[in-house]
Amino acid sequence: MNWIFSFLNNYGMPAMLFLILLEYACFPISSEIVLPFCGALAASQHTPYPLLVLLSAAAGLAGTSICYIIGRIGGKPLLDRITKRFPKTQRGLDVSMNYFERRGAALVLFGRFIPLCRTYLGFVAGALNLPLPTYLSCSFVGIFFWNALLCGLGYLLGSNWPVVASWYTRYKNIIIPALLIIVLLGLYLRNLSTKETH
Fold it and tell me: Residue 39 is part of which domain span?
């Protein structure tokens, strides 16, 4: 991890944006460490916070678009090979694709707040042919708020930014299930309101 910090210190904003792009393109770089550090570094360089969030969201969107394209190009043939080899998976896959078609936008938006899930969203959305404009718009909103939160904490805490990673590590067993419950509750309520209007 030390190479990341020295890279960011030496090259500033371009290095921040490059690492954020890589993180969203599924390289093994933890956003819970990189984003708060980027916030702290931006604050020390007097970079305006709104500019940091906007640029970091754009970098994240570029990174996740790479995953989407890979999923779009390679995902369908891979899924076809799996179902040919394991025909029983076809039904489950069809149900998943149908669900993703109906709820894909919400999954992409809220999935940005769930570690591990957010890593593979682009591949899945691409493989299941979620329309690109839907994917990009929902991804941008989710990435914007996730980056605003983590960069903002680093921006406020300054040199104490490592506290964010320790909080996350300590409370992730509470945070992740709580986020999942909120997402599922939101989807349920949305589904309920859609049924009532029909």
Answer: 2-197
